[in-house]
Write a structure and sequence with these properties.
The complex is a heterodimer of chains A (270) and B (407). In chain A, 44% of the residues lie in helices and 14% in strands. Chain A has 270 residues and is of the alpha/beta class. Chain A has an 8-stranded parallel beta barrel, surrounded by 9 helices. Chain B is of the alpha/beta class and 407 residues long. In chain B, a hairpin with a 1-residue loop joins strand 11 and strand 12. The chains are: A alpha/beta (270), B alpha/beta (407). The interface between A and B is large, with 40 and 39 residues.
C-alpha cells in the first residue's frame, strides 16, 4: 500500500478526514522551510503538499505567488527541493506530494525528474497545468517509478469529463472548492457535497477538498463528506506574517495547523 | 487545391484536434479552464463554417478596421538599399494602429455568439489592449486589460487610449512586470470568472484553440497581400519578412504562402541588447522546448525550467515563448528565423521615418532591420515584402527618451 493510501486508510479508521497541509518548498529559505515542514508533520499533518516554486505560477493567488518568489530568491532549485524532501524523510514517514507546474517536470526530461523525485522520497505529483489529455508521459513515468498522480477536478468539470480524469489519477482526487486561483476565502461554497458525491460515482479513490479553507469550522464542514481537507494559503500566510522573526515560524505554524486540524474529526462540534 | 508544402505537410491539417502542431502546441492549463477551452473550440469551429459569421466579420473588418490595407511600394527604401524592390504591407494603417484589430474583432464576434458579457485581455505594447478596448466599446462588453507595470510606463499613451475607450487597465507588479506577467494575471482572472468572461488572447500563443484561431483571424493579411502583389507585379515575391513576438502578424502574413515554396519566409525575433541570457527575447537563440502559459514550444528558461528574464526595446516582442506553429515550421525549415537588436531597431526606425514618411512600431521595425539588410543582398529584379504590423505613434516618447530628446 502506498503511503498516500495508508494515510487515508488510517484517517478513515479513525472516523476523520485526512489533514493535508500545503507549504511552498524553500519559503522563505531552505532551513526555515525544513523546520516548518517538520513542525507541521510533527503536529499531526497526514499529508504534506509541497509546492515547488515556479517563476510563473498562473494557477496561484498572490499568497502562493509571493511564497514561490521568496523561495526562488532564497536560492531554491530543483536539486534543493529534492534535498528538502530527503531531509524530511530522515524524520517522517508521512506522504509528501509535489504541487508543481509542468515545465519544471518536463524541462530536464519527465522520466529523469520522476525518478529523482521518487529517489528523494516523494510520493506523488500534482501538476497544476497538466490535464490528463497531455499527461501520458508523466503517468507512465510515475507508474514505472512508483509515484502517485494526483489530478484536480474543478467546479467547471462536467460529469462526462470525470472518468477521463479518474483514469489518469492515483492516490487521491483533489476537488478544488471554488472557481479561481488559490487563496483564503471567507465561505465554503455550498455545492461541494454534491460535487464530491458526483466524483464518488466514478472512482473509489479518496477525494480531498481544498482551495481557500482557513478556519477550523470550514475544515469541519468539509471533513463531514470529504476524505481529505487541504489547507494551504492559511498556513503560507503564517510564514508571511513572521518573516521578520523566522525562528518563530515553526511554532506558529504548528499551532495554526493543530487548530485547523482539530476540525477533521466527524461528529465533533467545531 | 494544392495542399502540400515542400515538406508534404497540409497546412490546414494543423493543429490536430488536441491543438498540436507536431510536437508543439496542445492544452496545458488548470482543470478549471479545460471546459471553457473546449467550449471555445466548439464555438469557433461552428463560427468559422458559418457564412453569416464570416460575412459579419468581413463587414466589420472593412467598415470598422479599414481593410483592405495597402501593399505600398517603398520607393525610397528600395533606392536606399539598392537591391530588391521593397513593399510594405500597411497593417499600421488599420484602426487602432496595428494588425491586432483583426483578431480582436473576430474574437469579439465570437464572444457575443457565446453570450459572454465580459472580456479580458493581456497586452504588452498596448496595441492588443487598445484593439480589444475598441471592440469592447463597439460591441458593449465590459473590458479589463492586464498590463505589466513596466509596459504601462513605456506605453503610457496606449494606457490612456484604452481608458478613454472605457476599458479598465490593471497594472501587474509581479516578476519583471511585462507581457508574461500580464498573461499570468489574465489567466488568473479567467480561472476566477470563466463562466461570464471571454479571454481575448492577443497572440498566436497559449492553449488550443488560441494559436489556430488567432492565426485564422490574421490570415486576411496574407490573403490580401497575395492578391495585391500578383496584381502589381504579376508574380509572387521572393521573400517575406515579419517580426515575431508570439507570432500572430507573422503567421497571418505567411500562412497563405506556406505552399509557395519559391517564397522565402523569415520571422524576426527581438535580439535586445544581444544574445546573452536575460538580454534578449530570441527564443530560437538559446531557448529550448518547454511548456508555458498553455502550450508546448520554444521557451527561454534555465536548466531547472524556470522562465528567464527577457529584454527588448519593444514591449510587444518582450516575451519568453514563441507561438507553437512557428516552432513547427522552423523544424520543417519552411520559415527561417533571424533576430534584430535594439540599436539596429533604433536606426531603422529613423531611416523608415525619414525616407518614407512612415513611423513604424518598434515591433515591426525588427522586420525592417532584417528586410533592409536582405534587400541590399538581393537583385534589383527581386521582390521583398515586409509586414509593417503597426504604427509607431505609441513609441515616439520612448524613442525620444532613448535618443536623449526632451519633448
Amino acid at each position: 500500500m502506498s503511503r498516500l493510501a495508508q494515510a487515508f486508510a488510517r484517517a478513515r479508521s479513525q472516523d476523520r478526514a485526512a489533514f493535508v497541509a500545503y507549504l511552498c518548498a524553500g519559503d522563505p529559505d531552505f532551513d526555515t522551510s525544513l523546520a516548518a515542514c517538520r513542525a507541521l508533520l510533527a503536529s499531526g499533518v497526514d499529508i504534506l503538499e509541497l509546492g515547488v516554486p515556479f517563476s510563473d505560477p498562473l494557477a496561484d493567488g498572490l499568497t502562493n505567488q509571493l511564497a514561490a518568489q521568496r523561495a526562488l530568491e532564497s536560492g531554491m532549485t530543483a536539486a534543493r527541493v529534492f534535498e528538502l524532501v530527503r531531509r524530511l524523510r530522515e524524520t517522517s514517514d508521512a506522504p509528501i506530494i509535489f504541487y508543481t507546474y509542468y515545465n519544471l517536470v518536463f524541462s530536464g526530461g519527465v522520466d529523469a525528474y520522476v525518478r529523482a523525485a521518487k529517489g528523494a522520497g516523494a510520493d506523488g505529483l500534482l501538476t497544476l497545468d497538466l490535464p490528463p489529455e497531455e499527461a501520458g508521459e508523466v503517468v507512465t513515468a510515475c507508474r514505472t517509478h512508483g509515484l502517485d498522480t494526483v489530478f484536480i477536478i474543478a467546479p467547471t468539470t462536467p460529469e462526462s469529463r470525470i472518468p477521463v480524469i479518474t483514469a489518469a489519477a492515483s492516490g487521491f482526487i483533489y476537488y478544488v472548492s471554488r472557481e479561481g486561483v488559490t487563496g483564503v476565502q471567507d465561505r465554503v461554497a455550498g455545492n461541494i457535497p454534491e460535487a464530491v458525491a458526483r466524483i464518488r460515482r466514478h472512482t473509489a479513490l479518496p477525494v480531498a477538498v481544498g482551495f481557500g479553507l482557513s478556519s477550523r469550522a470550514q475544515v469541519a464542514q468539509v471533513a463531514a463528506y470529504a476524505d481529505g481537507v487541504v489547507v494551504g494559503s492559511a498556513l503560507v500566510n503564517i510564514i508571511r506574517e513572521h518573516l521578520g522573526e523566522r525562528a518563530n515560524i515553526s511554532a506558529a505554524l504548528a499551532a495554526r495547523a493543530a487548530d485547523l486540524s482539530a476540525g477533521v474529526g466527524r461528529g465533533v462540534p467545531a | 487545391m494544392p495542399a502540400a508544402t515542400a515538406t508534404g505537410i497540409d497546412r490546414f491539417s494543423l493543429p490536430d484536434a488536441g491543438g498540436h502542431f507536431g510536437r508543439y502546441g496542445g492544452v496545458f492549463v488548470p482543470e478549471t479552464l479545460m471546459t471553457a477551452l473546449q467550449e471555445l473550440g466548439t464555438a469557433y469551429d461552428l463560427a468559422r463554417q458559418d457564412p453569416g459569421f464570416q460575412a459579419e466579420l468581413r463587414h466589420h473588418l472593412k467598415e470598422f478596421a479599414g481593410r483592405p490595407t495597402q501593399l505600398y511600394f517603398a520607393e525610397r527604401l528600395t533606392e536606399h538599399c539598392g537591391g530588391a524592390r521593397i513593399y510594405l504591407k500597411r497593417e499600421d494603417l488599420l484602426h487602432t494602429g496595428a494588425h491586432k484589430i483583426n483578431n480582436a474583432l473576430g474574437q469579439a464576434l465570437l464572444a457575443r455568439r457565446m453570450g459572454k458579457k465580459r472580456v479580458i485581455a493581456e497586452t504588452g505594447a498596448g496595441q492588443h489592449g487598445v484593439a480589444t478596448a475598441a471592440v469592447c466599446a463597439k460591441f458593449g462588453f465590459e473590458c479589463v486589460v492586464y498590463m505589466g507595470a513596466v509596459d504601462m510606463e513605456r506605453q503610457a499613451l496606449n494606457v490612456f487610449r484604452m481608458r478613454l475607450m472605457g476599458a479598465e487597465v490593471r497594472g501587474v507588479e509581479a516578476g519583471q512586470k511585462t507581457l508574461k506577467e500580464a498573461i499570468n494575471e489574465a489567466m488568473r482572472d479567467w480561472v476566477t470568472n470563466v463562466r461570464s468572461t471571454h479571454y481575448i488572447l492577443g497572440s498566436a500563443l497559449g492553449a488550443h484553440p488560441y494559436p489556430m484561431m488567432v492565426r485564422d483571424f490574421h490570415r486576411v493579411i496574407g490573403q490580401e497581400t497575395k492578391e495585391q502583389i500578383l496584381a502589381r507585379e504579376g508574380r509572387l515575391p521572393d521573400e517575406m519578412v515579419a517580426c515575431v513576438g508570439g507570432g500572430s502578424n507573422a503567421m497571418g502574413f505567411f500562412f497563405d504562402f506556406l505552399e509557395d515554396t519559391s517564397v522565402r519566409l523569415t520571422g524576426v525575433e527581438a535580439g535586445g541588447r544581444g544574445i546573452t541570457r536575460g538580454d534578449h527575447a530570441a527564443r530560437f537563440e538559446g531557448g529550448k522546448l518547454g511548456v508555458l502559459q498553455g502550450c508546448k514550444t520554444y521557451i527561454l528558461q534555465n536548466s531547472d525550467g524556470q522562465i528567464e528574464l527577457t529584454h527588448s526595446v519593444s514591449a510587444g516582442l518582450d516575451y519568453a515563448a514563441i507561438g507553437p506553429e512557428h516552432a513547427f515550421y522552423r523544424d520543417q525549415k519552411r520559415i527561417n528565423y533571424a533576430y534584430a537588436c535594439d540599436d539596429e531597431v533604433m536606426e531603422a526606425f529613423q531611416t523608415c521615418s525619414r525616407l518614407e514618411g512612415i513611423i513604424p512600431a518598434l515591433e515591426s521595425t525588427h522586420a525592417l532591420v532584417y528586410g533592409l539588410k536582405r534587400a541590399k543582398e538581393m537583385r534589383k529584379d527581386e521582390i521583398l515584402l515586409i509586414n509593417l504590423s503597426g504604427r509607431g505613434d505609441k513609441d515616439v516618447q520612448q524613442v525620444a527618451k532613448i535618443l536623449g530628446v526632451k519633448l
